[in-house]
Amino acid sequence: MIRPITKCDFELFWPTFSAIIEHQETYAFAPNMTVEQAYDLWCEQPLKTFVYEEQGEQLGSYYLKNNAAGPGSHVCNCGYMVAEQARGKGIARQLCEHSQQQAIALGFQAMQFNSVVSTNAVAVQLWKKLGFSIVGRVPKAYLHRQLGYVDTLVMYKWLID
């Protein structure tokens, strides 16, 4: 169900991606981004990008990339998206668990989420359940479409026992 994404997969996932960035509730991506810009950002720039496919439908995706270089290169960063009609079915959990396995296989020792929108309670709760801690709060760092300026959270997990 989770496999490396292809350009065709991303084009099929584009309506989900586009809807998420247009809502301006969880991602600090330009809401008018083109499919080409989005593909570059989500699939070309990261080290790896995966898609969650079920019965020929692309229901979720994540990217995995370095969070920093040099002395910080042991920490990775990921971003996740799940189609609206597939939320609440455990797909984000599966994507996050898969990303942690991939990160370890790639030699990363920790994972950091740099900008989790604090009002995204479902994501914050899930990341906590999966062992992430809130290690920082950035006041009013995200302009939420409906709520105005809200805080973002920095969440972190050490992956190696």
User: What is the CA-atom radius of gyration, in angstroms?
Assistant: 15 Å
Structural class: alpha+beta
Instruction: State the order of secondary-structure elements, H for helix, E for strand.
Output: EHHEEEHEHEE
* Number of helical elements: 4
Low-confidence stretches: none
Q: Determine and state the CATH class of one domain.
A: Alpha Beta
CATH fold category name of one domain: Aminopeptidase
Principal-axis shape equals globular
Description of the molecule:
Pfam families: Acetyltransf_1. It comes from Oceanisphaera pacifica. This is GNAT family N-acetyltransferase. The protein is α+β, with helices and mostly antiparallel strands. The protein has a domain at about 1-110: 3-Layer(aba) Sandwich (Aminopeptidase). About 30% of the residues lie in helices and about 35% in strands. The protein contains four helices and seven strands, in the order βααβββαβαββ. It has a seven-stranded mixed sheet with strand order 1-2-3-4-5-7-6, sandwiched between helices. A hairpin with an 8-residue loop joins strand 3 and strand 4 (about 75-80). Helix 1 (about 5-25) crosses helix 2 (about 35-45). The two termini are about 25 Å apart.
Keywords:
161 residues; Aminopeptidase; Mito_N-acetyltransferase; alpha+beta; 4 helices; GNAT_dom
Give a nutshell description of this structure.
This protein has helices at 7-23, 35-44, 91-105, 121-129; strands at residues 2-4, 48-54, 57-66, 75-82, 110-117, 133-144, 148-158.
Question: Topology, please?
Answer:
Layout lengths: L1 E3 L2 H17 L11 H10 L3 E7 L2 E10 L8 E8 L8 H15 L4 E8 L3 H9 L3 E12 L3 E11 L3
Helix pairs in contact: 1-2
